[in-house]
Amino acid sequence: MVAATAVASVAGTASVPSPARDPAWLGRVALAGATLVILWPLLVATEFKPWLMWEPRSLAVTLNFLAGFVPPAHSPAFLWEVAQATWRTLAIATAGMTLGLLLAVPATLLSTRVLSISALSGRMSRGPFWLRQLLRWALIALRSVPELVWALVFVRVVGLGPTAGVLAIALTYGGMLGKVYGEILESGETHACQTLLRNGCSRLQAFGYGLLPQNAAELTSYTIYRWECAIRSSVVLGFVGAGGLGQQLDGAMKMFYGGEVLTLLLVFVLLVALADRISAGLRRALG
Predict the structure, then answer these.
(1) I need a surface site. Which of 103, 153, 157, 265 has the fewest CB within 10 A?
(2) CATH class of the domain defined by 76-286
(3) 190-209, pLDDT tens digit by residue?
(4) Phi then psi for 18, rounded to 5 degrees?
């Protein structure tokens, strides 16, 4: 009986003709039209004119500029300078991230609600609540100022060189890391952490045994991603005198040394690929 019913159901389903067109096409067309209506004033305000790139004069300038990239510069003296600048760039990014972690980790432990002992009763005490809010506002202030602006400030304070880049990355990335670390910890499973706190464990113990094990992979992945971003930022900061590959790239661009520019860009791509491989390896190790 059941088999016969199933066969009849399949037969009935097979006899139903398929629709000639997508039944949701009207909604998709309306959504596309609404998106265009919203984006059009923005494109007008930004004077977005990509067709200018295909004008004969623009194409001639672009092709002439790109032709200077070949062959890439590879003289021993230049490659040695690139190696020194690469090491300096990695040092700026790593030192800035380390200082940023020194800012972000304590701020995260103090501002994360799930690690608050007073919040176990349901409502956080007034003192911890306002401390948490002040820390969150401080993190907002740090990440609201782009690292390029911080670098311009520190270049005037400490002078040209890597120190300005390190401090700029530390402040901006400290605010970013503190915000995202807190969101990662609060969005996961918190039962183990709260149980540890209710049984007399300290914040560090609850964090180390209740939150860190289940969030370690995500925290590590985001940290390595931010280190990769710090490498890119350190290159950009070199244009304002913070040293590293960016300062060398700025000089090559100004002198129209296309071969040197291509070599520096290739090194930059290799650095980002290295950071990506490190991130994948750490995720596999923690997974």
Answers:
(1) 157
(2) mainly alpha
(3) 778 778 878 877 878 888 88
(4) -75, 150
